[in-house]
Amino acid sequence: MEDVSKSQAALKGLCPRCRQGKIFKKPFYSPTGFDEMYELCPHCGLRYEIEPGYFIGAMYVSYAISGGVALVLGFLIFYLGGDPDGWVYASIIAPVMVVIAPVNFRISRVIWLHYVAGIKYVKGL
Ligand SMILES: [Zn+2]
Fold first, then answer.
1. What's the CA-to-centroid distance between 122 and ligand 1, angstroms?
2. Could you tell me the distance, in angstroms and rounded to a whole number, from the CA of residue 61 to the centre of ligand 1?
3. Is residue 53 a part of any domain in this protein?
4. Residue 125: pLDDT band by 50, 70, 90 thresholds?
5. How many A from CA of 116 to the centre of ligand 1?
6. Which domain covers residue 100, as residue numbers?
7. How far is the CA of 89 from the centre of ligand 1 (A)?
8. 100 Cα: distance to centroid of ligand 1 (angstroms)
9. How many domains are there within the chain?
10. Residue at 125 is within a domain
11. Do the domain assignments include residue 48?
12. CA of 47 to the centre of ligand 1 (A)
């Protein structure tokens, strides 16, 4: 079996333990169900939500990502737009936040599982 690196597995949204099973049931662009996760890894049976409220921590990751995106956008608008009125910032940044929300939701959970949770990769599971 081909070895999948940690970053490849994270990018593809695969289980942190076996790097084979998917974490999410549907693609991120699915309007209904982008947030639906498998309870257990379909390949190795790892329970993704180790304890109730386990993914609350992923909210901090999500907050950092959206804060970073908003900050970068704010600087871009400031320098490229010549510091326009406040409503210009809001009317550009707010819709972008809504559009990236599904991706952000998933990325933060994947980062949480792969890089924060301390789940060890078990080869050949
Ligand atoms: Zn697995």
1. 9
2. 22
3. yes
4. confident
5. 17
6. 6-116
7. 42
8. 27
9. 1
10. no
11. yes
12. 9
Distance from residue 99's CA to the centre of ligand 1 (Å): 29
Q: Is the pTM of this model over 0.85?
A: yes
* 118 Cα to the center of ligand 1, angstroms: 14
How large is the C-alpha radius of gyration of the chain?
Answer: 17
Calpha distance 49→52 (Å, rounded): 7
Does 35 map to a domain? yes
- Calpha distance 21→13 (Å, rounded): 9
The pLDDT, as a whole number, for residue 1 is 56
How far apart CA 68 and CA 70 sit, in angstroms, is 5
Distance 17 CA to ligand 1 centre (A): 5
3-state secondary structure of 106: helix
- The tens digit of pLDDT for each residue in 50-90 reads 889 999 999 999 999 999 999 999 999 999 999 999 999 99
- Whether the Cβ atoms of residue 19 and residue 2 lie closer than 8 Å to each other: no
117 pLDDT higher than 60: yes
Q: pLDDT grade, residue 47 (50/70/90)?
A: very high
